[in-house]
Amino acid sequence: MTPQQTEVVVVGAGPVGLAVAAGLRLHGHDVVVVDRQAEGVNTSRACVIHPRTLEVLEELGVTKRLVDLGLQLKDFAVRAGDHKLVPVGFAELPTEYPFVTMIPQPITEQVLLERLEELGGSVLRPYSATGLKHSADGVEVTLDNGDVIAAQYVVAADGMNSTIRELAGLRMPGNTLQISCSLVDVRVDGGLPVDEVALYFASAGLLVVAPLPDGSFRMVAEMPNAPEHPDLAYAQRLLTDRGPRKSRPQVTEVIWGSRFRIHERVADRYRSGRVLLAGDAAHTHSPAGGQGMNLGLRDAVALADALSTALAGDDSQLDAYAETSRHEAIRVIGLSHRLTRLANVPRPVRPIRNAVLTLVGRIRKTQTDFAKQLAGFPERKM
Questions:
Q1: Residue 41 has pLDDT above 60, yes or no
Q2: Using 50, 70 and 90 to split pLDDT, how confident is the model at 289?
Q3: What share of the chain has pLDDT > 70, as a percent?
Q4: How far is CA 306 from the centre of its chain?
């Protein structure tokens, strides 16, 4: 049965929506989460959690569980075939979590859902938000079954094509890059490093290869006319043309795959009165560097804290959240944009790019600064 009233409605039960709701429950607030899917997503999209995000998620009490279920990697490398252009290590970073955690998004969602349920929360499925009425005193969210939920605030965590954002009149301008990408999860008979995330800058184009906890590998590649359902021959061609040479890894199984285009967008504002944006509803960008879900999860914890303060009578922290989180999104989009552009320079220029990266990559400060950017705390002192 749909509640008629609550303190906060969260639309969207991906990692960001679940994290916002768990944070609110920790503060003792009533929250209703609605999601249009009958059950959680069963495909693996985002698959990495960075050090700063692990620190932030301590507040929700889920960090240890995520680390235990994931695969800890202390190394990241920009490569060209068998040659390491830029080695990047996380082991010496100033954090209790000097590694990235490889963990498929469905597992992250399950951990967050279990935490929400431990705190007395749940998700209403399958319901879509179709209407929004908001005033100075509160908001009303109408669902596709006609039910109306009255609340003090509503959080849009319903993705890049957010209905709530559109109903609130908030814009998310930006660009759709003319770059088609493949995402393929595969099993491989040896030949790939199992202790690092590798960014291959090949003549044929970019290939990202990352090991996952179950022994499979995630591959992401820029590819014109990428297939919607990549097969084994296609995955093997990506590795042969763009991956390591000497070890000759052989793909034995394609577990799952998809295609997507890269969008670089950030909302003009994260707040309209009692409507707040978080996650992909507020920003979206290239997957280069694996920053998307991490940025959204950090949004979520900050927003839950700000909403708790607002529900106590002081909404100034909501404006601070909107400004600070948008500024961080612009930084992250800039980082992923630079990586994407660097990976997609014209083919004749790629050997020069690789030569320059080899020289620059030998500088310790370059390695450290890059690691801190990826980890989520570029300004932190060593």
A1: no
A2: low
A3: 97
A4: 21
